[in-house]
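Structure tokens please, single chain.
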Amino acid sequence: MCGGFTCSKNALIALNVLYIVVAFILIGVAVYGRAASLVTNLPIIGGILACGIILFLISVLGLLGAVKHHQVMLFFYMVILFLLFLIQFSVACACLGVNIAQQEQLAEQGWSRVDNNTRMKVQDVFTCCGFAESIDKTISPPSCENVNTRCCFSSNEKNCVCPQCMQKLQDTINYAFKLCGWIGLFFSLTEFMGVLLTVRYRNQKDPRANPSAFL
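Here you go.
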């Protein structure tokens, strides 16, 4: 039956194998992004790499505990997984609950903290000039000459300017928050399922330890 010892063991093993695959994907993305210079922000790459390594170590702990039916390993795995569930579920709900005004406020804070080189890259990638009127009054945006030339290349208007970056980034930021929220919510539910499986699996007896159970 599916609620038996073997089924619980196989389900827990499969879940941790899935986590290991996700961990390798995170590590691979971080390494590839650094090698190909797709992301120049080292803290972001370090954070992705750290998440991949931590997830890999936790998955190995759960995998060994499931294979050996080791009570101590399963206990620590269960506690760590439950803490991760609480953190990830809270962050996912926060991402899904952020409204447009809060997203704009966070984006303005990020724009004000980065240097001009990063702002120029944002303007060049999204073909925009400045960020928003409220923040451009206090923080002068980088030169928009090259960007405006690209914007007005196919336009017949004289002295035209590119739209502000907040107008271009609003949909992207909203999509990123919703995507992170739903993905985080999905994985937090799998972590909760892992906790339930671990609790059930720890309380079950190994049939191999009692041969008379098969008689």
